[in-house]
Design a protein that fits this description.
Layout: H1 12-18, E1 28-35, E2 41-44, E3 47-54, H2 55-67, E4 72-77, H3 97-108, E5 113-118, E6 131-133, E7 136-138, H4 140-156, E8 160-163, H5 170-180, E9 187-194, H6 201-207, H7 227-238, E10 243-247, H8 253-262, E11 267-271, H9 273-284, H10 290-304, E12 308-311, H11 314-322
Parallel strand pairs: 1-3, 1-4, 1-12, 4-5, 5-8, 8-9, 9-10, 10-11, 11-12
Antiparallel strand pairs: 2-3, 6-7
Bound molecules: ligand PBG.
């Protein structure tokens, strides 16, 4: 034998020297669920160990994330039922929970990169990401609201707008409204290849945002397809997206790789609620070593091409990486 591949695996030191992929806390985007009230900490039943926090506790949590080296949070709010309608009224409320959350986090930790989810589902009486007419989710009318929603997030101090709705043309509309209003430093992280996935189930429990009728297949992508992901992503980049995203992550690593190879902007992957729940459930049963599963999963996503990873394990992983 003139080549023994095991030589490079001989010791921890050699393995560290030749490791291609090194996970760091600045790779992570930490999703946060904000709810009304004070001193509220509610565990999400399908996401053990993950909580909805009122704003006061959300700010504390964000501070802790920052000290762990995490540079970015992605905000979601749980809107009370009485503010939900079919027009996104609350989504553009300058004093809505989202807008207040952005202001509070930026005031407490100015350097934290605050990203905001833009879609109508938490505010929709139908639980859909857009305006509903009959059984249809209207595209252009929704885009108009999403643009105003994005502007209100920018006005509150958001650093990145993260549209997760999958309507056509929304990135251009958001870019235009930001430009017209002087927000030329606000970025857009586009959920470009977002698939209609069962792995969002626990998230919909967290925000009480499950669709009231039908499903999201007329706007989110069909998981049978990959070339469509390229088209969606290239269009979002042309329309002004700064960062593109593939979602979910683990079952979609081929898509992450294709997008990485076909683009020159940073690629993020969303390791979604159901992916979190699977690892948690297996670990609780003693079937998987949770810490190892977290680090292996996240490292693999980075190896697949993710520059950034939105993950509910952000805090756990950052702590594990400190050891
Ligand atoms: C809302 C939105 C969803 C997620 C992020 N933004 C749910 C959905 O599209 O139904 C899913 C996140 C997760 O499962 O962790 N547009």
């Amino acid at each position: 034998m003139i080549r023994r591949n095991r030589i490079l695996r001989t010791s921890p030191a050699i393995r560290a020297m030749v490791a291609e992929t090194i996970l760091t806390p600045s790779d992570f985007i930490a999703p946060l669920f904000v709810t009304e009230g004070e001193n509220v900490k509610e565990e999400i039943s399908s996401m053990p160990g993950y909580f909805r926090y009122s704003l006061d506790l959300t700010v504390q949590e964000a501070k802790e994330l920052w000290t762990l080296g995490i540079k970015s949070v992605l905000l979601f709010v749980k809107a009370p039922d009485n503010v939900k309608d079919n027009k996104g009224t609350e989504a553009v409320n300058p004093n809505g929970l989202m807008q207040r959350s952005i202001r509070a986090i930026k005031a407490a930790i100015p350097e934290m990169v605050v990203m905001t989810d833009v879609a109508l589902d938490p505010y929709s009486s139908y639980g859909h990401d857009g305006i509903v007419e009959g059984t249809e989710i209207l595209n252009d009318a929704t885009v108009e609201v999403l643009a105003r929603m994005s502007l209100s997030h920018a006005q509150a101090g958001a650093d990145f707008i993260a549209p997760s709705d999958m309507m056509d043309g929304r990135i251009l509309a958001i870019r235009n409204i930001l430009e017209e209003n002087g927000f030329d430093k606000v970025g857009i992280m586009a959920y470009s290849a977002k698939y209609a996935s069962c792995f969002y189930g626990p998230f919909r429990d967290a925000l009480d945002s499950a669709p009231g009728f039908g499903d999201k297949k007329s706007y989110q992508m069909d998981y049978a397809n990959s070339r469509e992901a390229i088209r969606e992503t290239l269009m979002d980049i042309e329309e002004g997206a700064d960062i593109v995203m593939v979602k979910p992550a683990m079952a979609y690593m081929d898509i992450i790789r294709i997008i990485k190879d076909r683009t020159t902007v940073p690629v993020s992957a969303y390791h979604v609620s159901g992916e979190y729940a699977m690892i948690k459930a297996a670990a609780q049963n003693g079937w998987l070593n949770e810490e190892k599963a977290i680090i292996e999963s996240l490292t693999s996503l980075k190896r697949a091409g993710a520059d950034l990873i939105a993950t509910y394990f952000a805090k756990d992983a950052a702590k594990l990486l400190q050891r």
